[in-house]
Amino acid sequence: MKTIKEFTLPADADARRAVAPVICYPVDTLAQPDLDAYRVARQGMALVSEVLVPPREARTVRINAGQFFRIVSIEGPQVGDLNLHNANDLSERFYSGKTRALHGTHLSTGDRLWSSFPNMRPMATITADTLDWYGFDAFGGGVHDVIGTRCDPYTNNLLSGGQYHRCCHSNLSRALAEHTGQTPAEAEHMVHDVLNVFMCTGFTRDTHQYFMKASPVRPDDYLEFYAEIDLLANLSACPGGDCSAQHSSDAAACYPLKIEVFDAPPVAGWQAPAPNGYDRSHGL
Predict the structure, then answer these.
(1) What's the chain's Rg over C-alpha atoms?
(2) What is each CA distance from 278 to 119, 126, 132, 200, 205, in whole angstroms?
(3) CB atoms within 10 A of CB 138
(4) Taking the complete model, does pTM exceed 0.85, yes or no?
(5) Contact assessment for residue 113 and residue 122, using Cβ atoms and an 8 Å cutoff
(6) What's the mean pLDDT in 220-229?
(7) Cβ-count burial of 239 within 10 angstroms (0-12 exposed, 13-18 middle, 19+ buried)?
């Protein structure tokens, strides 16, 4: 948290701090999604399946490339932790850190969810977000973050002791195990850092610690995606509910979420994203 200061302030401290920042990964050359083409296809969407995700549980759903899918709030304010895998190769999975580096700490319409190395390609594109009005509040909070990793029983045990099994990490592990036929211990290694859907988060101004606050989500709000490749979407309804007070707890009011999957007409000009073009020689 950089609160301990043991060394003398250098004479040029202000000058060093005043150096202007540089964006690490400029995206000027990054191909942008044709949102108008997605919007046209959305007009022909037809619901083909829906799955209810109970409170403090997770569910895994297959979504084919070319389908739209939504995560929907249906009863009360509730956040969800989303994992994505390539349905045909589970080793290719959502890479939240690189997505954050490319698009920022919080995602919305037009941003893409990128996959892990060596493929590093778009897995899904966000095509609609009913909370896009929120922006960033006076505390620096925003919605749909790729900062937090997911609530988990290990950190819970470290900070509070005890054995809590309804953390998002455990929920996602159980759901993936059930879907794939693996044991929970095997599936756990495939659970990864998430998109925190509907969660309102940021960093405090003083210590720059990760914070959460009551989500602005309400019933009928949704976050919508277009599947760029065949996907397994694994979603946990977080035990923190709207994350206004705590997570990893049975005390918070929690509500179900719903995953809706839609067929749609082809997106004009769309092509399946190819794996990353790096030759993987690594200089050898």
Answers:
(1) 20
(2) 9, 25, 34, 36, 39
(3) 5
(4) yes
(5) yes
(6) 98
(7) buried
pLDDT tens by residue, 60-79? 999 999 999 999 999 999 99
Name the strand (E) or helix (H) holding 143: strand 142-145
Strand, coil or helix: what is 198?
Answer: strand
Tokens of 221: 């709000």
Residue 101 φ/ψ, nearest 5 degrees: -65, -35
Q: Tokens 């778009």 correspond to what residue? A: 122
Segment holding 35, helix H or strand E? helix 35-42
**Alpha helices (runs of H) in 72-162, residue ranges in sequence order:** 96-103, 153-160
* Separation between Cα atoms, residue 46 and residue 67, nearest integer Å: 10
Instruction: Give the C-alpha separation, 220 to 238, whole Å.
Output: 18
The C-alpha atoms of residue 105 and residue 91 are separated, in whole angstroms, by 24
> Residue 264: how many CB atoms within 10 A of its CB?
19
